[in-house]
Predict the structure.
Amino acid sequence: MAQQHFFDEIACFSYDDQHRFHLNDSSLRYYYPPTLPADLNRGFDTFQQLDDTADDHLDSLLQTIAALERENGAQLQTDFITWRGMMTKVCDGKEVLMQLR
């Protein structure tokens, strides 16, 4: 029986420390669980709040798709597109719904 393939990464985009858009994976990081107990004050004095009044994630996702289509010279043929953070929320939401049933 063939293994079922659920998703493919087709492209990526990043934001730098000034929240500028880049068509690459330069901001991709791995998650490392904290050592407990954690000092929640650590790094607070160097934290830089970005202006998050504009939610430009959808714009960036569309810019990435448009760049991919230009590069391939064809319209993207897919059923579902999302970004990693949203997929985490979808999966977590499904888990919560399964527990509520």
